[in-house]
TrEMBL record:
InterPro entries: HATC_C_dom (IPR008906), RNaseH-like_sf (IPR012337), Znf_BED (IPR003656), ZnF_BED_domain_contain (IPR052035), Znf_C2H2_sf (IPR036236). It is found in: Nucleus. One of its GO terms (molecular function) is DNA binding. PANTHER family: ZINC FINGER BED DOMAIN-CONTAINING PROTEIN 39 (PTHR46481:SF10), ZINC FINGER BED DOMAIN-CONTAINING PROTEIN 4 (PTHR46481). This is BED-type domain-containing protein. Residues 49-97 are annotated as: Disordered. The keyword Transit peptide does not apply. Residues 72-94 have a biased composition (Polar residues).
């Protein structure tokens, strides 16, 4: 017989192991039960297992299903008298729940209300879940999701769909806006990217992202924020686009901080940037895309056949199953074919690369079910030969499309690498006519579109001020000298507008020694050799920087500058206006990828305002 009288519901979570001792069924801790007092057990549940509901009985209710499933739970055996027997020796404390599962309503009576701050944090995380996971607002009304949340924390009350939409999302949006506004205030210089997008609902959006460098005592990092992705129903004229950009700048108080705007090469946005008297960075990835797309016309016959095969397997589930079966039979990795997208040549590379990876399985499967789609031996040779050429451009596109690392300074060195590679291909004189045509076409396109790149002042200054490249990135020494001369002139002007002296001058002037000091002659020599004005100091900094050894290409230039910001204070201030510049408008394209997910099949009725709010939260949620 048990030595304890177990009338309290708390005994549903403990078992008696010896007189005045009980074992927790969740963590197996042994607790004392003095004189049958269960207070110690209750406190243990509250402190160690706060999400465990204190169920008062296990009797069926009206909600009991007719054929409930048996569930394994930690339990002691309830008796008719309400007492509890310990499991037999050697048996497990995990038993079969009687044919009844407690409903959420059973938990409500034993659940304490959650502290307001904790509830607020959970509300915010719920909004992030909805925004980043692209879930419909109806998720909060889903019965299974409700049960899941109650089992995790019965004290949390899920908001209604209306509260989520009309209160929590706008509130979270405002909170994120305050953080972004704070970043904009602290940014010395801002580079924008902008692009447009039309949804499947035929709603037109324009997006603007901001890129800037923030420096603290701990680190100097490149950061980015979405400033807005909003509905734009005006005609996309240069005048309207200029006004749109001005409104964004005024809203965020960054009119005087804009260093450049990255965009595609469309005539309207190019004119808009020019009319706004801003500098434009033509999207490097977009321009490179035009080069390669143009060259791929020489591959049209083979590409057409590849697309036909891919479309066939994509349309027919039976054919695809046979392809998968063939891959297994040939002991090959099970890989899905990829389809290209007309607007992005990178997807063409992906399609061809996967096509070659599955070559043997495709040949065998096509021969069995659709021999009319078979590629000739020459087609396969052409595809295999063009892949190494395309891979270079694929890798370059990936290299310049980052948001968290310095990219514009890479453009000049990468153009040099691409031209050198293509020249090498020209000298090889491939015996395949299609390959010769593609190489010739790429050589012409690269020279035509990027031949000027070293004379572009933004690209040139970014490369010179990158400790990975400096003059080594340039092919033409004359263009480097011209860019360096222009940079020195700008640094002189920038330095003359500042009244602060260099740290060396401050150190000498703050500790003047008497004429009889043993350090007197040394101090005087330092003063004579130290620039006595900021203009000269800026040039001294630049010359000293240029004589430092290059760092590894894989290192972060911002880390290098951060470690030397007290050595090169004037240059450090200037690189904030150059290393924040991005080489592409890809960040905006990523926004539109998110926008497409946001307007998924279960969210088609979202208003444009709500779409804008969700995107703002999702894209700035790491702030």
């Amino acid at each position: 017989m048990s030595g304890l009288r177990k009338r309290s519901a708390v005994w549903n979570h403990f078992e008696e192991v010896e007189p005045k001792k009980a074992k927790c069924l969740y963590c197996a801790n042994i607790l004392s039960v003095p004189a049958g007092n269960c207070g110690n057990l209750g406190r243990h549940l509250k402190n160690k297992h706060p999400t465990v509901p204190l169920v008062t009985d296990r009797q069926p209710t009206q909600q009991t299903p007719e054929t409930p499933q048996e569930t394994l739970v930690p339990t002691s055996t309830a008796t008719e008298s309400g007492t509890s027997k310990a499991p037999a020796p050697g048996s497990s404390s995990v038993g079969l729940l009687p044919p009844y599962q407690p409903s959420i309503r059973d938990y409500a009576h034993s659940t304490k209300s959650m502290p307001p701050r904790r509830a607020e944090l959970l509300d915010e995380q719920l909004v992030r879940l909805i925004a980043n996971g692209y879930y419909p607002f109806s998720l909060v009304e889903d019965e299974e999701f409700k049960k899941f949340v109650y089992m995790l924390n019965p004290g949390y009350k899920l908001p209604t769909r209306k509260t989520l939409s009309q209160s929590l999302i706008p509130k979270m949006c405002t909170k994120q806006e305050e953080k972004v506004r704070h970043n904009m205030e602290n940014a010395n210089a801002v580079c924008l990217t902008t692009d447009g997008w039309t949804s499947d609902n035929n709603q037109s959006y324009l997006a603007v992202t901001a890129h800037y460098i923030l420096s603290t005592s701990e680190a100097t990092k490149l950061q980015s924020n979405l400033l807005g992705c909003v509905e734009f129903n005006e005609r996309h004229t240069s005048e309207n686009l200029t006004e749109f950009l001005k409104n964004i700048m005024r809203e965020w108080h960054i009119e005087n901080k804009i260093t450049a705007i990255a965009s595609d090469n469309a005539a309207n946005i190019t004119a808009a940037i020019r009319e706004g008297d801003w500098r434009q960075i033509p999207c490097f990835a977009h321009t490179l895309n035009l080069c390669v797309q143009s060259a791929l016309q020489h591959l049209t016959p083979a590409l057409t056949k590849v697309k036909s095969v891919v479309e066939f397997f994509k349309r027919s589930s039976q054919a695809n199953e046979k392809l998968v079966s063939m891959q297994k039979r040939l002991s090959l990795p099970t890989l899905k074919l990829k389809q290209d997208v007309a607007t992005r040549w990178n997807s063409t590379y992906d399609m061809l690369h996967r096509f070659i990876q599955t070559k043997d399985a495709i040949i065998s499967t096509i021969a069995l079910i659709r021999p009319d789609l078979a590629l000739s031996d020459h087609d396969w040779v052409v595809i295999e030969s063009v892949l190494p050429i395309l891979k270079l451009f694929y890798d370059v596109t990936v290299e310049v499309s980052g948001e968290k690392n310095v990219t514009l300074s890479k453009v000049i060195p990468l153009c040099r690498i691409m031209l050198s590679h293509i020249k090498g291909r020209l000298q090889e004189q491939s015996n395949i006519q299609e390959i010769r045509n593609i190489v010739l076409h790429l050589h012409k396109e690269l020279n035509q579109r990027f031949g000027y790149i070293e004379s572009n002042i933004l690209n040139a200054e970014s490369t010179i001020l990158d400790p990975r490249f400096k003059n080594k990135g340039f092919q033409d020494p004359k263009l480097y000298d011209r860019a360096l001369k222009d940079l020195k002139l700008k640094i002189r002007r920038s330095s003359s507008s500042k009244t602060t002296t260099t740290p060396a001058v401050e150190a000498v002037q703050s500790q003047p020694g008497p004429s009889n000091s043993i350090w007197f002659e040394f101090d005087q020599e330092v003063v004579r050799q130290t620039p006595d004005n900021p203009t000269a100091a800026g040039i001294v900094e630049l010359d000293k920087y240029l004589h430092e050894p290059l760092i590894k290409r894989t290192e972060d230039p911002l880390k290098w500058w951060h470690a030397r910001k007290n050595i090169y204070p004037l240059l450090f201030n200037y690189i904030m206006k150059r290393h924040n510049l991005v080489a592409t408008s890809v960040p905006c394209e990523r926004i539109f990828s998110k926008a497409g997910y946001t307007l998924n099949e279960r969210r088609r009725r979202l208003t444009t305002k709500k779409v804008s709010q969700l995107l703002f939260i999702s894209c700035n949620s790491n702030e």
